[in-house]
Amino acid sequence: MHPAISIQNISKHYGALQALNDVSLAIEQGEFFGLLGPNGAGKTTLISILAGLVRPDKGHAAILGADVQKSFRDARRMLGVVPQELVFDPFFTVRETLRFQSGYFGIRNNDAWIDEILSNLDLTAKAESNMRSLSGGMKRRVLVAQALVHRPPVIILDEPTAGVDVELRQSLWQFISRLNQDGHTIVLTTHYLEEAEALCQRIAMLKQGEIVALDTTANLLTRYGSVKKDGEGKTDLEDVFVNIMSGGAL
Amino acid sequence: MKHGLNRPPLEYGSGFPTLLYKEVKRFYKVAFQTVAAPVLTAVLYLMIFGHVLEGREVYGRLSYTAFLIPGLVMMSVLQNAFANTSSSLIQSKVTGNLVFVLLSPLSHFEFYAAYVLAAVFRGVVVGLGVFLITAWYGLPSLEYPLWILTFAFLGAAILGSLGLIAGIWADKYDQLAAFQNFIIMPATMLSGVFYSIHSLPPAWQVVSHFNPFFYMIDGFRYGFFGVSDNSPWSSLAIVACFFVVVSAIALRLLQKGYKLRH
Structural domain boundaries of chain A? Predict the structure, then answer.
């Protein structure tokens, strides 16, 4: 059985900046996986390589065995990406946006699934609204809907809750968790570490383009259980993250 | 709720028809700006130049107004085909929503075909609008409709491809404006829309023969009157070669992901 995501010796530089340096990683099917790191660590570059938006200098990446460059059609059909930036096409309504996205994947007559996604993301009332008229949180939901419209088995969410209110954040995670229980592989990047701790079974931490920690969430917390500065209370992922980023790599 | 993986597998087709439809719908939603405005511009050209230069004859038998109408129609076709691809692409790049197309399994050929065919469609719709309005001033004859259609399609496809190249290359609106104002606009204005090149001094006649837009306009006009500055067959050969070259460049840029996939 192929891993959901396979990354082998990926390197990428932009001018003098080494964005990724010989990164290798395998994410198994059905995992809820966290990809964490400070700004500029290389998370978005890695996601962009998986999505085919960025070409690596060296190395290979595959989605469920399909190479993202050589078998790009298969790889992209099996991958849904929620981009970090709040981007939208101002010409169209929410429903048109989702129909177009479905059509780009060659899927027609997909309205039943589109209606379900709209319902689950509380977007039904906004289906005929122009994208320009939506609030930031609503636009974020549409981005999630666009990533799901072709029913991809692997879903990557690049900081999906940035600038989103608590209520939407919770309903979004409930929906994503249900997708994961249903068999979808979920990869998440976020700066809300309590979300990653609650949701992710396994976590990789990136720093300056290299993986500096990779383990189950429970193991990371156990291994760094003694680092709480005041010596009291439960260690959380934030403590682990700060410790690793300050040099205590595994 | 049953989520995606519990459902029957999807049947995938090509994303090309959807991208084509989206590109057509994009300009249709702002048709006042993308269709009506260029038609009005062409009519103003006809009113001004037709009035000032009426009384002149071209090719020894055509009124100046009759001569001008096909040129204005083709100029509108070309400029609007260029505007469609270039503006759509630069807007999508600047606003970032091009990512939705790039994340899809569309091939570079499907991407090219959808954008260029939408540009051809807009060019032909605007050209038809100009023709219908200007025909009120004197309906030109339609000697060889097949030549008209051939040059209209090839010319629009060439400018659609050039718009794609410009849209890919430009990072900012002013770069695109420079491409449009310093290359496309002079090439179309100096292509014989407003005059027969036989009325030019010999040196400028030679220069005009290096302008590929001249052959598009001249071949298109031949379809109306059966008379032109250049042989329609040699114009067709030159236009077809130009189409192959600009298409090859656009396809290569898309395949390489130049300024699109980093």
Answer: 5-245
